[in-house]
Design goal:
The chain is an all-alpha fold. The protein contains six helices and no strands. 7% of the residues are buried.
């Protein structure tokens, strides 16, 4: 984590199921996705960006960090509280006075529900989201 600060990450049922399926492939190391150079460090953001380039996405179309931005935008649109979203993304409070009162707030119960709802939303989109037609303008 940034600044070596601990960060609790609630996982959805779907995420746990994926991790269980990955365990035979990743072994019993510290990281699920270790660096290609050493299993003492996690995979880098550049590795994910390189994978996106190999899949055909340009840097203008998608980056690994773009998934965080996309999730934050959609979670806001779905009505989740900004405080819970920001904490899930490990963002620090920029308002120092507010931070003094909320620095220990983890919003874990809400974040658990939010992450399950997010996984369910991704499953819904994967199955084929409802397409809402727009009326044609004259």
């Amino acid at each position: 984590m940034k600044m070596r600060a601990p960060h609790i990450v609630p996982l959805s049922v779907q995420a746990v199921a994926i991790l269980i399926r990955l365990k035979p492939l990743t072994g019993h190391g510290r990281f699920v996705f270790p660096s290609v150079r050493t299993n003492c460090r996690p995979m880098s953001e550049n590795t994910l960006n390189a994978a996106l380039r190999r899949l055909g996405y340009s840097g203008d179309e998608m980056t690994s960090h773009g998934f965080r931005s996309m999730a934050a935008t959609r979670l806001n649109e779905l009505g989740w509280r900004a405080d819970a979203i920001e904490r899930q993304l490990a963002h620090a409070e920029s308002n120092k006075v507010r931070d003094a009162y909320t620095h220990a707030a983890q919003y874990l119960d809400e974040r658990r529900k939010m992450m399950q709802a997010w996984a369910d939303e991704l499953d819904r989109l994967r199955r084929g989201a409802e397409v809402i037609p727009f009326p044609h303008s004259a």
